[in-house]
Design a protein that fits this description.
This is DUF4411 family protein. It comes from Algoriphagus oliviformis. Pfam families: DUF4411 (PF14367). This protein is of the alpha/beta class and 192 residues long. It has a single domain, classed as 3-Layer(aba) Sandwich (Rossmann fold), CATH 3.40.50. It is built from eleven helices and five strands, in the order E-H-H-E-H-H-H-E-H-H-H-H-E-H-E-H. It has a five-stranded parallel sheet with strand order 3-2-1-4-5. Helix 3 runs antiparallel to helix 9 and helix 9 packs parallel to helix 10. The mean pLDDT is 92.
């Protein structure tokens, strides 16, 4: 199983789970999953972590700031050259199926839409989706999940749909952090 993790899930991990991890069991499991490549951290998500919640993610998961650990275990996946599997089809879907706010979309000129599209394609959300597609194609025998706390409902006035809605259309499985932790039998925080 491979899990590509979103900033929202990492933030939930450090805010709502690690404070109850008194023996460090969960911390060590998560660290080990990063080391073995079972949890993947994209560079775009890593960059978001530097600015979210007063760097709470990087402070609590301090191994993510250890340059030797990151380099030795190849933790951060570079996405600068990442493109969709079928670029023309993906860009067409972006315009015709992944727009969440049609009212906002209708008010945009073609040039304004191109700017919004470019911004989205460079976002962590888009990189997560594109990387998820690539992983599924390259590893058809493995369970691949995109881990996010986002919901499908468009409640933030953004132009494009949220990760779960896009992933559902592209047949990429999404799960939340609690669902991911359920898949790790070695995680036992003593709640019974």
């Amino acid at each position: 199983m491979i899990a590509v993790i979103d900033t929202s899930s990492l933030l939930s991990l450090v805010r709502y789970y690690l404070p109850f991890d008194k023996k460090g069991v969960l911390f060590e499991v998560i660290k080990k999953k990063f080391e073995t490549g079972e949890i993947i951290l994209l560079d775009a998500v890593y960059e978001e972590c530097k600015y979210v919640g007063q760097k709470a993610i990087l402070k609590k998961l301090d191994f993510l700031e250890n340059k030797n650990f990151l380099k030795e275990n190849k933790i951060i996946v570079k996405t600068e050259d990442l493109i969709p599997l079928a670029p023309a089809k993906f860009l067409n879907q972006l315009k015709n199926q992944f727009v969440a706010n049609t009212f906002q979309f209708c008010k945009l000129t073609e040039a304004e839409f191109e700017v919004k599209k470019k911004e989205f394609m460079e976002s962590a959300d888009a990189k997560l989706v594109m990387y998820g597609q690539r992983l599924i194609k390259e590893n058809p025998e493995k369970e691949i999940y995109l881990v996010t706390e986002e919901t499908s409902s468009a409640n933030d006035m953004k132009l494009f749909k949220k990760i779960p809605a896009i992933c559902e259309h592209l047949r990429i499985s999404t799960i939340t952090l609690p669902q991911l932790l359920e898949k790790y039998p070695e995680v036992d925080l003593g709640f019974e």
